[in-house]
Amino acid sequence: MADRPGTAPLPLDPRAVRLTAVADSRDEAIRQCGQALVDVGAVDERYINAMIERERSISTYVGEGVAIPHGTLAAKDAVHHDAICVLRFPDGVDWNGEQVTVCVGIAARGDGHVRLLAELAQILLDPDSARALRDATEISAVVDLLQPSREEAP
User: Fold this and answer.
1) pLDDT for 82-114, tens place per residue?
2) Per-residue DSSP letters for 85-135?
3) 33 pLDDT exceeds 80?
4) Pick the catalytic residue: 70, 80, 81, 113?
5) Can you give the pTM of this predicted structure?
6) C-alpha dihedral sign at 124, 26, 42, 106
7) Residue 81 catalytic?
8) Based on the number of CB atoms within 10 Å of its own CB, is 84 exposed (0-12), middle (13-18) or buried (19 or more)?
C-alpha cells in the first residue's frame, strides 16, 4: 500500500476539498468539515457532533493557521472508512483566539487516526507546506500537496 517506507497516501477524496468556505465560528467550521466527510460517505452524521465534542475537550489547533478537527473515540462506529477533508477559510475563523484558515478534518477507524495525524503533522508543521496549503486556490494543488505523486518516490 505504501509507496515509500513508512508512508501511505492520505485518504483524500477531491470532493472533500473546499477552498472558499466561510464560517462565523469554530463550531460552524467543524460542522462544515464533518459535513464534507459525510458527503463523501466516510462517516455518518453522528460524527459531526463527536468532532465538536472533541474540540470542547481539547483544541485541535496545531499552529500555522491550521486545525485538525476529528471525533472522539466513542464515535469510531460512525466512521465507515478512513478519510480526510480540507476546508480553506480565506477570511479566517477565530479558533479560541487563534486565526485558522485551513481545517483538515479526519475520520479513521480503529487507531487509524494516529497514522493520519502523524502524516499530516509532517506536512502541516512545515511552514512552507502550511503556507502552500493556506494559499491554495486549486483543488489539484491541495491533492498534490497531501498526496505526492507516486513518481516522486525514490
Assistant:
1) 999 999 999 999 999 999 999 999 999 877 778
2) EEEEEEEEEEETTEEEEEEEEEE-STTHHHHHHHHHHHHHTSHHHHHHHHH
3) yes
4) 70
5) 0.88
6) positive
7) no
8) buried
